[in-house]
Amino acid sequence: MSYRYALVPYIRAPEKYPNVVLFYDEYVSIIKDAFPKGKVHLLILPRNEETSKQKSQEAFKDEKTRKMLEAYVHQAIELTQKAFDKEWRRIDGDDEKKMKILVCCHSVPSLNNLHIHVLTTDMCGRNMKNKKHYNSFTTDFAIRFDEFPLKEDDFRLQDKGKCESLLKQDLVYNGANYKSSFKKMQAKIHEDFDKIYKHI
Amino acid sequence: MSYRYALVPYIRAPEKYPNVVLFYDEYVSIIKDAFPKGKVHLLILPRNEETSKQKSQEAFKDEKTRKMLEAYVHQAIELTQKAFDKEWRRIDGDDEKKMKILVCCHSVPSLNNLHIHVLTTDMCGRNMKNKKHYNSFTTDFAIRFDEFPLKEDDFRLQDKGKCESLLKQDLVYNGANYKSSFKKMQAKIHEDFDKIYKHI
DNA sequence: TATTCCGATAGTGAC
DNA sequence: GTCACTATCGGAATGAG
């Protein structure tokens, strides 16, 4: 079971991992996701033990916790934007158009410590490898930070089975249904990305 | 679609393929199966065009056709027995015990030319690679030559769907159910074979 | 839904 | 059920004295 606690070191001793931890204070650590699903993919980890062991659906019922995190979310968004812009430029030169950034929590996390994903929405990360990865960020399986607190009747509060079924649904990109053909969809996604961005 | 006619050359011009054709006359060719599912695996191919294009269920309703083939079946069995004995010896030295030989047709063939399988029942052929291969020789999907002509109510005369479903059933070997674990079953089959036979 | 490894399953293309 | 190739799907292990 210990893989479920892979994030513990960054909460307990962020100072030990300068290559992974971009920022930390007494409340949070902001780290680079070891298996990025977007070109840039960070995680915000609340360091408070009680908060960390809760699911996002529960932890973010508390307004204080949400408010406390807002500033860190904005900070992480800025870090993500800067990291992306440092690596990628639009071919059309229109620097006003910014890569969209997603801030969310998975409705059924696999790691036991609360973590907020902050990632560019290109879906071109090195470790975007399968249908579950893709659907975990493109369906309601992902709970956007601005959706918290969830309404009482939100299925994601109770219905783990329905959440998990979202990961198995057909792959949809740009209005097209790719059924289960992850590789074909990924090829199209990368093709489109390469039409818009060039690496610096 | 032309792969469905892979056997045509051995019917039309058996004299051209001495490395594959073990015997031929005006009625049949007996060839080595290119993808053997037993240690020895031959095919009897009736050369008559009308016969060849029928399914076994139809062709062997005709008694003359069956009778014509009987002698060739016995010949093919002898060839198979000799070829096996030339390569493999029982470790216990009991030469009276003979490897069993199966003579059958597939109820749903993939190749369009009528072919009778004659093979040792060791299930250890070089090309025994998956569940469908195995079930195609160990279930009623295989119609033994001595079952022809089929009774009128035999499902294999009409129900292609039921025939094909037999290929997907659980793997059974020596009374044990291996579900879909082909590799595990195959390991056991080879282990058992190696306990009884040694290569010459 | 952490990854990774292995194996079973499924679709395709073959001329 | 022809094969061979690719890719998808599905389970299990992952720790460690």
Automatic annotation (TrEMBL), chains A, B:
Protein name, as recorded: Aprataxin C2HE/C2H2/C2HC zinc finger domain-containing protein
Molecular-function GO term, any one: mismatched DNA binding
Annotated GO biological process: single strand break repair
One Gene Ontology CC term in the entry: nucleus
